[in-house]
Amino acid sequence: MVGSAVVVSGCGVIDLGRPRQAERPGGEPSAAPSAGPSEQSRDEEPLEPKNDPLAGDGPLFAHFKRVRAADPCDLVPHTMLKKYGPEQLTVRGSGMTECQYLTGHSDASKSVYSFKIDLHAHFEQKDAEDAEEEKLGGRTIYREEYSTDSASHRSCHYKVPYEGVEGSALALDLLKTPPRGEESRPWPQRCTAAKHYLRAVVDRIMKLPPRKGRAVGVMGKDPCARKDDLLAALGRSYELVDVRYSSPYGCELELANKQKNQKLTLRSGFAFHERQTGGVSSPEVKSRRLTMNGRYMLSTRSDHRVTKSCQNSVELRRATNSRKDDAHYVTVGLSSAKLKVEDEDASFEAPPVSCTLATKLTRIVLGGVRSSS
After folding, report:
1. Using CB atoms within 10 A of its CB, is residue 249 exposed (0-12), middle (13-18) or buried (19+)?
2. Cβ atoms 126, 103 nearer than 8 A
3. 303: exposed, middle or buried (C-beta count within 10 Å: 0-12, 13-18, 19+)?
4. Cα 358–295–74 angle (5° rounding)?
5. Within this chain, do residues 175 and 233 fall inside the same structural domain, yes or no?
6. 103 DSSP assignment
């Protein structure tokens, strides 16, 4: 394998329809987001109220608030990494809870070391059962291996669950990239180096102290802060069934309109990205490049049989780094499906969704971010 140090950012259309799939160091990049929701299974259960751990008043609510208040790049020392070479690059991940240091000599003949932390990585008891349990001081930490990680011989991955918070852990991914043009070789000390770094940062990170400076753009903002205004815009015909935070910067409202037999899902999310340009349009999925309040916006409409949706991604702040992948994006999507299917012979055709309403909801979320900036 020929080595190269690459930082990858999302492109195409921001997909709020499923949890963001993180790229693992050394593995193949995640599949690019589709331009719209895919067809759902006929066996999908109808919407029912549930006690979801990601509910708006659930145990992760306060934790995600603390994660948003912290700046991951404030919490990790990089002076201790000087032995690996001078710092080359600091990268914030698209999910905004990540910070990556790429250290090593700028000389292409030298190896590059990547230390990346994520203040929130999904982690539950079932994940612990598939990982190697280790001790770090008085803490239990978990070392994970991934079948898709082609660089497992030169990388190491640890997760440290937050105490009293089911479903969230601090993650550390360490990767050594060989000099350009050279073959990949094993790094026997990879997990020893990862543990040494983790020992230096874990206590401070677990406290999640607030960021030092003022948050700008979408950083630190709650994607569901305007929930009441969004519900008011939807009207009384829609009953709120569930509120979920899929991540610190991703929120979903599930609603039901029994008269229309409609399940409506409103998704609001913030992220860093390169400029979103949309994929190739098809009869089912169409994208348009527009503006909203003078800001660039990509609007996408999906017209599948069982799910119909409209989504707007607004570029709140333009990219500033050399890779042009740190633009601040506000994305709001509205999707419609049948609430219940009465019998096997009934049509699965989803009720229509209003793109005009989706645009109105986007303005509400965007206004909330700007007013608090």
Report:
1. buried
2. no
3. middle
4. 100
5. no
6. E
235 and 357 fall within a common domain:
yes
Q: Tell whether 284 is covered by a domain.
A: yes
The answer to whether position 300 is within a domain reads yes
Burial status of residue 333 (CB atoms within 10 A of its CB: 0-12, 13-18, 19 or more):
buried
- Closest residue by Cα to residue 310 from 10, 17, 41: 17
Number of domains present in the structure of the chain: 2
Predicted structure pTM score: 0.82
**Residue showing tokens 């677990």:** 206
* Structural domain includes residue 44: no
| CATH number of the structural domain spanning residue 170 | 2.60.120
pLDDT in tens, 30-86: 333 333 433 433 333 334 444 454 556 567 888 999 999 999 999 987 788 888 888
Domain limits at 194? 71-207
The count of other CB atoms within 10 Å of the CB of residue 116 is: 22
Higher model confidence: residue 267 or residue 19? 267
Kindly state whether residue 18 falls inside one of the protein's structural domains: no
Strand-pair category, 308-317 with 132-136: unpaired
